[in-house]
Amino acid sequence: MKTRIIYTKIWEDDFFSTLTLKQQLLFLFLLTNARIGLTGMYELTDKTIKNNTKLRAEDITLAKEVFTNARKVFFKESWVYVVNAKRLNGYHGEKLNKAVSSELSLIPLEVYQYFKSVDLSVNPDRVSVFSDTTKNHKSKIINHKSETIIPQDSKAYEILKQTAKGVKGMN
Prior knowledge:
The chain is mainly alpha-helical. Helix content is about 45%, strand content about 5%. The chain is built from 8 helices and 3 strands.
């Protein structure tokens, strides 16, 4: 089963909050359906969308226009490209790069070229064009574990000291 992270801040996003309820449903479906992969490019027919979301064909067509005009999701024939999908998967590394390459090899060349040719100059790293995500500026992790320090004049310290000598003597 695939996992997709949807940040709760999406409900406050400038773009997402302007969508109708039906458009929000479709947008979330496009982000979370079983066909979406690492690249955000996948084949999905309108019939499948209708069967899963129960939206009418007119609602789907209108939502597609809204998403395309906002440069958030692009469509070509029965193919979908969710612009921010790669950013949302949260994984990195060599194995991921191999999986992405493998996934890209399954996309027809003309579909891939079309999606790559669309103008993504409207900040493709966000759902919205506005900076609406809180950033974590921590540069290091601090360990707040408390350590137990045994005073040197306690009985416990003497017992530990004797045990340590006994272990050394065993070598």
